[in-house]
Amino acid sequence: MIPTKGYAVQDAKTDLAPWNFERREVGPNDVQFDIQFCGVCHSDLHQIKDDWGGSIYPMVPGHEIVGKVIKVGSHVKKFKIGDFAGTGCLVDSCRTCENCQEGLEQFCLNGFTATYNGIEQDKKTPTYGGYSNTIVVHEDFVLHVSDKLDLAAVAPLLCAGITTYSPMKHWKIGKGHKLAVLGLGGLGHMAVKFGVAFGAEVTVLSTSPKKEADAIKLGAHKFVVTNDAEQLKSVAGNFNFILDTVSAPHDLNLYLSLLKTDGVHICVGVPPTPYEVHAFSLIGGRKSLVGSLIGGLPETQEMLDYCAEHGIVSEIEMIHIKNIHNAYDRMIKGDVRYRFVIDMATL
Amino acid sequence: MIPTKGYAVQDAKTDLAPWNFERREVGPNDVQFDIQFCGVCHSDLHQIKDDWGGSIYPMVPGHEIVGKVIKVGSHVKKFKIGDFAGTGCLVDSCRTCENCQEGLEQFCLNGFTATYNGIEQDKKTPTYGGYSNTIVVHEDFVLHVSDKLDLAAVAPLLCAGITTYSPMKHWKIGKGHKLAVLGLGGLGHMAVKFGVAFGAEVTVLSTSPKKEADAIKLGAHKFVVTNDAEQLKSVAGNFNFILDTVSAPHDLNLYLSLLKTDGVHICVGVPPTPYEVHAFSLIGGRKSLVGSLIGGLPETQEMLDYCAEHGIVSEIEMIHIKNIHNAYDRMIKGDVRYRFVIDMATL
């Protein structure tokens, strides 16, 4: 077994603290990499606190993981020592169901293995995430990361990036479309970058007027303050797509009214309470309310390659691991521009 | 003005009763027809009772109207005296917005004129529906009805028919698809007929085991009792589409779990309270919750022609106008197979 340092939460009430644990040995198809950076996702906080239920403790969070390969198994073909590598939200899946066969491992019908707070396909071994110095992952779930980009700023692409890239590709958002991005946080700022790169006219919808300058700097064409009734009215029936990154409760009926006929409202955030949706909000204008979850392995690699080609990375603020609680407090207040990334050398 | 007999409700608290009123004179582009049959739609009941708000009294309900043309204006080209004709939920729209231009008059951006409980495009004249002996409609909003079909059984096609036909065409439901029809009432039984005609494998989901024989007779391939947990479990992750015709409150999360990855849940009923939808119900499996509203004029004519070609009509129970309240009582109890149609000769 591989002795490993990490930051873990021991139960739903304790805080993250240093923890020594062991990783599995590098098997024939495994890649071990030295974790250099790990992004801090809002879902880390939800899972630490067991907001969604079913959390497994002790828990080492983190699923926006990048680093350098330090060991490869004898059968590994895709990686060699010294390569930059990344792992996102999945470290395994059944590989046999129709979704896995199609590269939609995020929808594995037998349940994918989450990078942390998950269970391996042996149905008993817990998984530990990226707030750690090293990780061992089957090569099929390790992604190539370009050396052309700032490695730390690549980390958030593994979750925030693919979560916004995938639905835009699936619903073919691009030229000629008016896209609203609801919420300018970790996901939202990536959605703006992709929306602009794909050729859409991008409007940021935000409760915070202070974010307008940033939105424009990120490439957005317009900015609308959502609690200004007049501003909202000016975009009624305006958008082909809304990409909704908000994980706090919010009134979807209001946003559905901003869609054109046949418009699509895409949810990628997970509020703690159900949405309340009036049938008339969908029926009037034949609108769609849809969900999307991260992306499969082939699409995640495609996204990383696209980002390398187009120079797209996340806007980040680097933190010391010991400041993780302060980072969470700031995330809750929305005080992050736009993703915290832990420098794992500080562990 | 044309003296007209009808059945009207005078305010939200009174019952339907005989009422004499006047229709507009037949203008150059108008068609007047003798109403022979009018279907009874669940929405008649909602609007009489002002369940959705904004009802206009006195109200003559009815938007599944068929009869024979008795007068045409000097410029009318599409109809001649003696033709069978029908009118559905719309009698006018702005005709100039992008949706009207595309034949999506049901999504008229300036507001279509509902056949009853609506306001003409002059923004002041109320409209009166089909519980009446005659009606005058602009020829663009009058539909040709085949003389090959039972005229009384055609009436419900004008609302129940197009409401189910349109989303099936829009989402291209057909061969190779597993379609669930939720609720076997006026809309549901038409959805089964169209689903089967389009080549889908059709399963009826119903709370009422008594409806199984009818479902199979209508052409459904399978029947699942929705309050039998075991039966429901057997169809988890099973359907490409659910066509949801239920207008009573129901748990969408349960039904979303019956969809395959990328499945689509289509709402055509309007429950009085909002749906409660967990984000995870959509995100897990990239599912869509969508709405659809009747159909535009070109598609409604296409549907009527399709029905004439394929011998599709509604299953009806003919009633005398004086029994309309009894019919409503039975509709509320779900005791209708599958659409009441008023013989307007009884007026």
Calculate the terminal CA-CA distance of chain A, rounded to whole Å. Answer: 20 Å
Low-confidence residue ranges of chain A? none
Largest interface: A-B, 34 and 34 residues
Number of domains of chain A: 2
Tell me the number of helical segments of chain A per DSSP (H or I, 4 or more residues long): 11
Sheet with the most strands, sense and barrel status of chain A:
7 strands, mixed
CATH architecture of the largest domain in chain A: Alpha-Beta Complex
CATH class term of the largest domain in chain A: Alpha Beta
Order of helices and strands of chain A: EEEHEEEHEEEHHEHEHEHEHEEHEHEHE
Radius of gyration based on Cα positions of chain A: 20 Å
Q: How would you classify the helix and strand content of chain A by structural class?
A: alpha/beta
- Shape call of chain A: globular
Pfam families (chains A, B): ADH_N, ADH_zinc_N
Protein name (chains A, B): NAD(P)-dependent alcohol dehydrogenase
Cofactor (chains A, B): Zn(2+)
GO molecular function (chains A, B): alcohol dehydrogenase (NADP+) activity; zinc ion binding
Précis, in short:
Two copies of one chain form a homodimer. With 347 residues, chain A is of the alpha/beta class.
Based on the model shown, name its key terms:
2 domains; six-stranded parallel β-sheet; NAD(P)-dependent alcohol dehydrogenase (chains A, B); oxidoreductase (chains A, B); alpha/beta; globular; 18 strands; homodimer; Quinone Oxidoreductase, Chain A, domain 1; ADH_Zn_CS (chains A, B); Rossmann fold; seven-stranded mixed β-sheet; 347 residues
